[in-house]
Design goal:
Order of helices and strands: EHEEHEEEEHEHEHEHEHEHEHHEH
Distance between the termini: 41 Å
Helix content: 25-40%
Strand content: 15-25%
Structural class: alpha/beta
Radius of gyration: 21 Å
Number of helices: 11
Bound molecules: phosphoenolpyruvate, manganese (II) ion
C-alpha cells in the first residue's frame, strides 16, 4: 500500500506512520516527493489495521500498490528523479554524455582520451578497470591500478568517473576511487552485489541485462532503492535477439516505456547496443529523440589496437563528430522551442 502524507506533515509525523505500518506487519519505506512524504508498505501485513491510519491527521490517502517495484515506479512520484554524480545532474534538462575507453589500458591511452572527451564537452569519464570478459583468456583489466589512473585523469580533467564493479569484494576499492559505480549487464541480477551496493554512498549505473525483461530490470533497481541507495540511473545497452549483424539490439521502445513506468533517469549505451562505431552517432540521436537523459559511449585513441571493444569504439575525431551530431540538433530544438514560446 502507498500512504501519502499531506504536504504539511514533517519528518517526525512521517516516521510515526512508518512505525505504525511496521506494527501492522508490513515492511515500511519512507520517500520524499515534491508533494510531501510517502510511506510505502510492502510485504504481507494486516490490511484492516493499516486502514485505521486513514483517520490520522497527516494521512491524505492510502492506495494499493500498482506494480511490483513501488519505489522505482511513477506511482511513488509524478516527477522524474535527478541523480547527482560529482556535481553533474543526470535526469535534468541537459543531456549528459559519458565517454571514455572500454578498458583502462595505460596512462597514455586514458589521459589522451580523457583530455579530448573533456575538450569536446563530455560530462563524465568512463573506463573499465575490472572487465567482465566472455573469455578468461581476454584482457581482464588493470584492477586497482586502473582505478588509480581513472582518479588521476578525473583530477586532471575535472570529469567525474564511472567504472564497473564486478563483485562484492571490490565494492570498497571501486567506491574509494570512482564517483559512480556501474553494475554491468551480466551482473544485473547479481542480488548479493545489488544488496551490497544499496548501502554504498555512491550513485549506481544499472545496466539492463542482455536478456532481461523491463520488469526484471526495474526490480533490480528496486533492490538498490529498497536497500537505501536512492541514486540509481538505468542504462539500456541492447538486448539479445535473433539478429546477428549487430552485437545486440538497441531497445529504444524500452527507453520510452521506462520513462513512463519509472521516475529514475535513463541513459543509452549505443556502443554495446550496436557493436559498430559507424552507427553510434545515428543511434545516439535516436536515443535522445526517444527521451534518453544521456549517453555512455566508448572512445579510444587507436580503436584498432584496443584491448577490448575496438570495433565499437569511436576514435577521437569520431567523438568530436558525435558531439556535433548530437549537440547541434539539440541546439536547434532548443531554438525552435524558444520561437514557439
Ligand atoms: C562496458 O561498459 O564496458 C560493459 C562491459 O558493458 P555491458 O555490461 O553493458 O556489456
Ligand atoms: Mn566495452
Amino acid at each position: 500500500m502507498i500512504i501519502r502524507m499531506s504536504a504539511q506533515a514533517n519528518t517526525e509525523d512521517s516516521i510515526r506512520i512508518v512505525e505504525r505500518v511496521r506494527e501492522c506487519g508490513f515492511e515500511p519505506f519512507l520517500a520524499r516527493t515534491k508533494k510531501g512524504y510517502v510511506v510505502v508498505a510492502t510485504g504481507t501485513g494486516r490490511l484492516s489495521e493499516l486502514d485505521i491510519l486513514k483517520s490520522e491527521p497527516w494521512v491524505k490517502s492510502i492506495e494499493p500498490l500498482a506494480c511490483p517495484y513501488p519505489l522505482a515506479s511513477r506511482q511513488l512520484k509524478d516527477e522524474r528523479s535527478v541523480v547527482e554524480v560529482g556535481g553533474v545532474a543526470i535526469g535534468g534538462p541537459e543531456v549528459v554524455v559519458i565517454a571514455g575507453p572500454c578498458s583502462v589500458e595505460s596512462p597514455e591511452q586514458l589521459f589522451r582520451t580523457a583530455r579530448v572527451v573533456k575538450a569536446f564537452g563530455a560530462h563524465l569519464l568512463r573506463g573499465g578497470a575490472f572487465k567482465p570478459r566472455t573469455s578468461p583468456y581476454d584482457f581482464q583489466g588493470l584492477g586497482v591500478e586502473g582505478l588509480r589512473l581513472l582518479r588521476e585523469a578525473s583530477l586532471e580533467t575535472g570529469l567525474p568517473v564511472v567504472t564497473e564493479v564486478m563483485g562484492t569484494e571490490d565494492v570498497d576499492d571501486v567506491a574509494e576511487y570512482a564517483d559512480m559505480l556501474q553494475v554491468g549487464a551480466r551482473n544485473m541480477q547479481n542480488f548479493t552485489l545489488l544488496r551490497r551496493l544499496a548501502s554504498t554512498p555512491r550513485p549506481i549505473l544499472l545496466k539492463r541485462g542482455p536478456s532481461a525483461h523491463i520488469k526484471e530490470w526495474l526490480l533490480a533497481a528496486e533492490y538498490l532503492l529498497s536497500g537505501g541507495n536512492q541514486n540509481v540511473v538505468l542504462c539500456e545497452r541492447g538486448i539479445k535477439t535473433f539478429e546477428t549483424e549487430l552485437r545486440n539490439t538497441l531497445d529504444l521502445a524500452a527507453v520510452a516505456l521506462v520513462r513512463e513506468l519509472s521516475h529514475l533517469p535513463i541513459i543509452v549505451d549505443p556502443s554495446h547496443a550496436t557493436g559498430r562505431r559507424s552507427i553510434v552517432s545515428a543511434t545516439s540521436r535516436a536515443a535522445i529523440a526517444v527521451g534518453a537523459d544521456g549517453l555512455i559511449v566508448e572512445v579510444h585513441p587507436e580503436p584498432e589496437r584496443a584491448l577490448s571493444d575496438g570495433p565499437q569504439s569511436l576514435d577521437l575525431d569520431g567523438f568530436e563528430q558525435l558531439m556535433r551530431d548530437v549537440c547541434e540538433p539539440l541546439r536547434a530544438l532548443a531554438g525552435s522551442m524558444a520561437l514557439n514560446i
